[in-house]
DNA sequence: CTGAAAGCGCTAACAA
DNA sequence: TTGTTAGCGCTTTCAG
């Protein structure tokens, strides 16, 4: 392995000088510079980033913590995050927690271990409050994206979940539906809470009652949503919903498939709306009406805020006010609710 | 920031002793051990992984290089990779290259910079041969997964692309199709080459001619595949294919959507088969017949081989024979070709 | 059984 | 304009 020392002796200069040309951190005479560059090429030298990191206490690495990389929602956030980070000379590493609190805790430790300089967290759940609170206590450079924890008061960028749900519900109501069910996601998620509230608000405002059975969980996944739909469809006729709002598109596809298996036509017998607007929602065979979540934007903004924090000297971090950005969402009307998209 | 020195002085022992209990690397008397553990708790000490890494020249990090994290193919590989790595005490960071040779080169540098201990590469393309060849020259610990470079002779785990294509083609032929087109993926990909060969082989063996126009590229993406399908459908009737094999499921959905827009019924007017067997291929609305690629297995095996390499002392690496594992694939018959899945 | 100290590869203060 | 050197936080050899 060749080190800075090898380059120094090969070019007949001090290691300091090599370091200076490597980092362009002070003037070095053209002749020496050339000799150094030459030596670097000849010996095919690559500086050791770990040693450098130890010295300057920075890793030039950002981490993105996601609950499930397999969920098509996250890759777009990841991409945005990478693009913004790359621009600033950071590498981003994606960490998958599988919604597991222990793995989240492990990920967070990377910050204190010095392996990563900042973190974007998309996995905040109520059950993780304790460990997340520590981030705040230590004033570690993190920003929450998509999910957040109410009352924690840390930088975050989320989407307008409440109004998204209101829009979805009103759309259904406008189409004449009265019996609309709301299929939530993981428990302890502020997202589910807000969207459910939006749904309840819209129903109430329109003067329609909500049967308790209509508030059900599809876990934001295909299979549970499929099953929950069957449960819903077994309700007595007067309570059986004619429309279902699912917390995300993947779950909504579970709803659609359950309808298919039950010989129910979508949207005639059952209307469905999702959240996210994944690629697949737009395929001709699916044409899912959904609330588009600006996930690229979510990732981008979160990363930019994080980068901003990392620029400031430590002192200012505490002084600066907390950012909380709420991005607007948009109802994309397609075919699964009938109406003008049909 | 609290360091090992703080713990040592707080517990009134030497830093060496602290290190020994931290790593469980030699006997320490119970009293001292307890004092040290106590100090660690009291000061809430977390060892600096960068300093440790510099000293032991290991980062306990693996990297997975993917071409496009947004493609639902990769997250499954990532998950497998993470699970295997985690088991062995490694963290994995996913690096997205966007199929960009420069970003691949940057990623590979991490190995020599000491930021990562080993790498799983899923982005090998002909154009990257030079930079990939260097990995071999330096005997760096990498393994190729999914994609490989012929003649490079490095560890790799791939799927049986040739036979998958043969199976897909024969299935179509068995259903009575004679005019089947093959829509390839990115250029310079060994995967495309092998599958195309499998297709050609099966067609030849059955004694059917292949029109040059039938070998077209859909770039393994939705939009280009959509467009390519329209091109194909504009051929004069005698050449117009009645079936299309797409290099992947995402592209196959583009084919299906194009057919829909052209008022062609799938499978009656046009049969389509994909590769991958993504989650969405199984939804009721799509029911795509496809060649299942064992991507979880791909990621798992590749990671295990990599881990194995990392266990050996450097010397043995060169001596050990190259692994090349070819995993079997399976044709999943559903609805888009008609026949028994219809 | 434990500690002192060298040193991993690099940066940057200080000196010249 | 350049070099010497301390030291980042840790592991591990060597001596005791």
From TrEMBL, chains A, B:
PROSITE patterns to which the protein is assigned, alphabetical: HTH_LACI_1, HTH_LACI_2
Domain HTH lacI-type residue range list: 2-56
Keywords: DNA-binding, Repressor, Transcription, Transcription regulation
InterPro entries: HTH_LacI (IPR000843), Lambda_DNA-bd_dom_sf (IPR010982), Peripla_BP/Lac1_sug-bd_dom (IPR001761), Peripla_BP_I (IPR028082)
Keyword S-adenosyl-L-methionine among record annotations: no
SMART domains for the chain: HTH_LACI (SM00354)
One GO MF term attached to the UniProt entry: DNA-binding transcription factor activity
PANTHER family recorded: HTH-TYPE TRANSCRIPTIONAL REPRESSOR PURR-RELATED, LACI-RELATED TRANSCRIPTIONAL REPRESSOR
Protein name stated in the entry: LacI family transcriptional regulator
Organism field: Cohnella ginsengisoli
């Amino acid at each position: 392995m060749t080190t800075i020392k090898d380059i120094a002796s090969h070019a007949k200069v001090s290691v300091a000088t090599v370091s200076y040309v490597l980092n362009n951190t002070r003037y070095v005479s053209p002749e020496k510079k050339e000799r150094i560059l030459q030596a670097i090429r000849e010996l095919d030298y690559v500086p050791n980033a770990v040693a450098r990191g130890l010295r300057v206490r920075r890793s030039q690495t950002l981490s993105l913590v996601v609950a499930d990389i397999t969920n098509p929602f996250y890759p777009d956030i990841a991409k945005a995050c990478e693009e913004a980070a790359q621009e600033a000379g950071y590498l981003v590493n994606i960490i998958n927690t599988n919604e597991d609190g222990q793995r989240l805790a492990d990920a967070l430790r990377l910050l204190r271990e010095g392996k990563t300089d900042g973190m974007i967290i998309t996995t905040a759940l109520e059950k993780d409050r304790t460990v997340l609170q520590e981030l705040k206590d230590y004033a570690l450079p993190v920003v929450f994206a998509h999910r957040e924890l109410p009352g924690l008061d840390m930088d975050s960028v989320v989407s307008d979940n409440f109004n998204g749900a209101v829009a979805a519900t009103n759309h259904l109501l406008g189409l004449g539906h009265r019996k609309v069910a709301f299929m939530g996601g993981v428990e302890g998620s502020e997202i589910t809470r807000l969207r459910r509230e939006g749904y309840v608000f819209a129903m109430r405002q329109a003067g329609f009652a909500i049967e308790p059975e209509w508030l059900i969980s599809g876990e934001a996944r295909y299979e549970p949503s499929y099953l929950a739909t069957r449960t819903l469809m077994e309700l007595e006729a007067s309570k059986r919903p004619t429309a279902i709002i699912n917390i995300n598109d993947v779950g909504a596809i579970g709803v659609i498939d359950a309808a298919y298996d039950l010989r129910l036509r979508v949207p005639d017998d059952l209307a469905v709306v999702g959240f996210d607007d994944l690629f697949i929602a737009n395929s001709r065979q699916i044409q899912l009406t959904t609330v588009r979540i600006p996930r690229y934007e979510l990732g981008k903004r979160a990363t930019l805020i994080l980068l901003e924090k990392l620029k400031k000297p430590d002192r200012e971090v505490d002084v600066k006010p907390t950012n909380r950005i709420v991005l607007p969402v948009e109802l994309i009307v397609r075919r699964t609710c009938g109406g003008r998209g049909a």
